[in-house]
Amino acid sequence: MEALHNRRVEVRLYNFDDPDVVGTDSQYRALQTFIFAEDNTATPLGKILKLPGTLAINTDTTVSTVMTLSNKVFDPAKDPQIKLPGVGTTYTARAFQFRPDGSTSLSSAAGSNWFFTLVSSNVATQVSPATLPPNFATIQIDSIGGTVRSYRP
Fold first, then answer.
1. Which burial class, exposed, middle or buried, applies to 19 when counting CB atoms under 10 A from its CB (0-12, 13-18, 19+)?
2. Is residue 3 included in any domain, yes or no?
3. Within a domain: residue 92?
4. In Å, what is the CA distance from 71 to each residue of 9, 65, 93?
5. Taking the model in full, what pTM does it have?
6. Is there a domain that residue 1 lies in?
7. How many whole angstroms separate alpha carbon 115 and alpha carbon 47?
8. Domain ranges, residue 26
9. Per residue in 126-136, is it b (16+ CB within 10 Å) or e — as a string?
10. Total number of domains in the chain
11. What is the pLDDT of residues 8-60, one digit of tens each?
C-alpha cells in the first residue's frame, strides 16, 4: 500500500436536498476528505460526515467566505463524482486542499480570510452578519499554515 505521507488532502463541502429534513431547500450539509496519490487519483479518507440534525453551512459570503470558491469539477478518470448515501450524484460541492507543506489551496493574498459558519438549516440561506442566531459556530482556516479554529458565541 502506498504511504499516505506528503499527499494533498482535499476537503469537500456538499450541497444537496436532504431527504431526511422536511421543508428545506438544497443546502451545504455534509463534508468529506480525500487524499490524492502521485498520479492525482482521489481516494476517500473516510465516510461522508453529514452535519447533525438541521445544521447547514451558511451561504452568505460575508459569514462563509468558502462559498466564493467555484463548484468542484470532477474528473471521471481520476476523481469521479461519488454517490452520496440517499442523494446519489444529485449534488454540487466546493473544495479546497491542504498541501504536504501544511499550506492550503486557498488564496493567501493580504486580507484573505477563509471560514464557514454553521447555523440551523431553517435560517441557513437567510442569515447575514447582522442576523446571525445566538447559536452558531464559525470554522476558520489559515490559508498559509493550514490550522483550523472554531469560534462560538
1. exposed
2. no
3. yes
4. 17, 14, 6
5. 0.88
6. no
7. 23
8. 8-151
9. ebeeeebeeeb
10. 1
11. 999 999 999 877 766 667 889 999 999 999 898 999 999 999 998 788 898 88
